[in-house]
Amino acid sequence: MSENNIYPVFDRIKTREDKEKLLQQKSKVIWITGLSGSGKTTIATGLEDILSKNGFVTQVLDGDNIRTGISNNLAFTEEDRKENIRRIAEVSKLFLNCGIITINCLISPTIESRQMAKEIIGDDNFILIWVNTPLAICEERDVKGLYKKARAGIIKNFTGIDQAYIEPENPDLTISTEKDTPEEATEILAKYVIPLITYTEK
Fold first, then answer.
1. CATH code for the domain of 182
2. Is residue 4 part of a domain?
């Protein structure tokens, strides 16, 4: 289809502000990054539980879930990883415009990929959370058995083994699951996030 045949209707649909007022919350995208096994998904689902109990409407986008759906045609090459992040950022932006608080738990291993997501979502809407768990701890946990497979050469391009994870330079919040229990880490994140998503009349 030619671009000449595309007719956007952005001016005729309800605005993000309308939907935030309806839901009585400020929509944000909480982007949780860290190595496989760092505790991202545990913290994300724990945060969703706390926010739901406090009346917030949320959506968790987990990397593995996304890989079984909208990104099931992608591999783990550098190009495909970048495309995966782009798709998730675009989906997050849709939720953002619906007034929904989106909690994303994704390895997103490079500064460039996280910056791309931030540019799509918008600086004011993007909250970067780094789950800073050392590789040795993640590998010791190896809940899914992925590190073992990567070490054996069964899985290629695995972050932390044969593909680098570049630490965030300026995350909004850093959480250590080496020092804190999952419950403590989740509480730390919730206390940080709740003031940012609490609705106030303009």
1. 3.40.50.300
2. no
